Amino acid sequence: MQREYSLIINGKQVAGGRGTFDVINPATEEVVSACPYATVEQLNDAVDAADEAFKTWQYSSDEERKQALHRIADGIEANAAELAEVIVKEQGKPMFLAQAEVGGAVAWTRYTADLEIPVEVLEDSDNKRIELHRKPLGVVGSITPWNWPLMIAVWHIMPALRTGNTVVCKPSGLTPLNTIMLAEIISKEVPAGVMNLVTGESGIGSAITGHEKIRKIVFTGSTPTGQAIMRNAAGNLKRLTLELGGNDAGIILPDADVNAIAEGIFQTAFLNMGQTCAALKRLYVHDSQYDQVCEKLVELANAQTVGDGMAEGTTFGPVQNKDQFDLVKELVDDAKANGADVLCGGQPLDGKGFFYPPTIVANVTDDMRIVAEEQFGPTLPVIRYSDVDEAVERANNCDVGLGGSVWSSDIEGAQKIAQRLECGTAWINGHAEVLPHAPFGGCKMSGFGVEFGQEGLLEYTVPQTLNINK
Ligand code: NAD
C-alpha cells in the first residue's frame, strides 16, 4: 500500500494547505508519490511551535539530548530498508549508494550525539573566574538540496538538536519524501514543536530565510540561492552556515602511479553520478601522462552499468532531474562545438529516464563552459598542463573553493602543493571524502562556516562569557 506523506508541525502530521505536488522518479519519469505543499501560514505555525518548544528544550539536560539522538539513530536503523528504497526512487542513485547514505545518516547521528559542548575556563584567580559557555540560538531553519537528501538533513538537524535548538526543515521539493520520514522518526523522540518540517518551493524557502523568529539558517545548495538567502537573512541578522557549490580541481603530479590512482579519481569524480558538492570536477593532468590517464578513465567509465537504481547490478543511475540533465547535455555539447574530444558517453540514453552515461571530455581549455562552470553531473573534463605551478594557478583561478586534491607518490611534495590550493578541504590521493570528525566547508563563493566535528557543532551556539567576581 502506498504510504502517505505529511507536514510535521508541532508534533502532528498535517496535510499541505496548498494541496500536493508530485515527486518524480528520475529513472522512470513516473510519480513516486504526492507530497504535501505547505502554505506560508503553515510555515508560520511551524516556526511558532518551534519558538515555543525552544523555551523548554534549551534547558533540557545534555544527557537527555544525547539519548534522544541515539534513539533517533535507532529509529533510522529500524527504517533503513524503506528509507533506502525511497531514496533510490526519488533521488535515482543505485541501491548500494542509498544504503550507504542511510548508514552514514546513522553514523553521523551517533557521532553528533556523543560530541561534548565545552565550557572553557579563561581565568580562575583569587578574585575572579571567567568561563566561556555555549548557548543554543533558538529556532534553526534548515534548507536542503536533492543530491544527498537524507544525509544532508541529518548534517543540519542533529547538531542543531544536540546543542538545544529547535528546527524547521524544508527539504528540496525534488526529493522530500525521505526527509519527511526522517522528521517523523525524530519527532517521536523529542517534545512536540522541537522538530518541524514543511515542504514547498522557493516561496517557502524565502519565507523561512526572512522569518523574524528564526535565528539561524543552515543551507546546502547552489551559490546563487546562498546569495539570495544571505540578502534575505539580514533583517534580524541571522547566523548563517552556507554550504554552496564547488568546482573542485584535482591535480595529478607527474610522479603519480596512474594505475594506482585511476579508480580513486573515477569514483570521486562520478560519485552519485557527479552530483556531489565536493566531487572532483576539473582534472589537471601533466602532458607526460595525459593519454594514459584518459585511457584508464575511459576504461572505468565503460565498465559501468547504467540503469534504474532499483535494478540488480546497476552501478550508475540517472541524473536526478530534467534541468540538471539538460545542463549536463548543454555543457558537453558546448565543449564538442568548441573542439573538445568526447572520449566516451556524450549522448543521453534513449527511452524514459534522465540517463546520461559517464562522460570523459579531453582536450578542453579552461575557458570552456564544461571547465569554468560547475557541471554537477556525470561528466569530467580532463585538462592538460605542462608546469605544476601553472596547474596550481589554473586550479585556483575560480570563484568557488570547496575542495581540491593532489595525486602523487610523494606525500610530502604533494602536501606542499595541496596547501597552496584555495579550498576548504584539500585531499592527497583522494577527494570528496567527508567524515563526522573532520570540519568541512568552503571558501570564496563556496560559502562559509563549517559542518562536522566540534567546530561544526559550535556553529549552532552563541558564546556567553560568564564573568564572576568572587
Ligand atoms: P538549490 O540552491 O537550487 O536548492 C537548494 C534548496 O534551496 C532547495 O530546498 C530549494 O527549494 C531551496 N531554495 C531555492 N530557492 C530558494 C530561496 N530563494 N530561498 C530559500 N531557499 C530556496 O540547489 P540544488 O540544485 O538543490 O543543489 C545543487 C547545488 O548544491 C550544487 O551547486 C551543489 O554544489 C550544492 N551543494 C553543496 C554542498 C556543500 O556542502 N557545499 C552539498 C551539496 C550540494
CATH topology of the largest domain: Aldehyde Dehydrogenase, Chain A, domain 1
Q: What gap, in angstroms, lies between the N and C termini?
A: 66 Å
**Which hetero compounds are present in the coordinates?**
nicotinamide-adenine-dinucleotide
**Which CATH first-tier class of the largest domain would you pick?**
Alpha Beta
Largest sheet: 7 strands, mixed
- How much of the sequence lies in strands comes to 15-25%
Number of domain units: 2
Tally of alpha and pi helices: 15
Radius of gyration: 23 Å
* Order of strands in the sheet with most strands: 14-15-16-13-12-18-19
Instruction: Give helix % range.
Output: 25-40%
Given the C-alpha coordinates, what overall shape results?
Answer: globular
Poorly predicted runs of 5 or more residues: none
Mean pLDDT, rounded to whole units? 97
Report the structural category. alpha/beta
Quaternary organization: single chain
Q: What topology emerges from the helices and strands here?
A:
Blueprint: E1 7-9, E2 12-14, E3 20-24, E4 31-36, H1 40-57, H2 62-78, H3 80-91, H4 95-113, E5 120-124, E6 128-136, E7 139-143, H5 149-162, E8 166-170, H6 177-189, E9 195-197, H7 202-210, E10 214-220, H8 223-232, E11 239-243, E12 248-252, H9 258-269, E13 280-286, H10 290-302, H11 322-337, E14 341-344, E15 359-362, H12 369-372, E16 379-385, H13 388-396, E17 400-401, E18 403-407, H14 411-418, E19 425-428, E20 443-444, E21 447-448, H15 453-458, E22 461-469
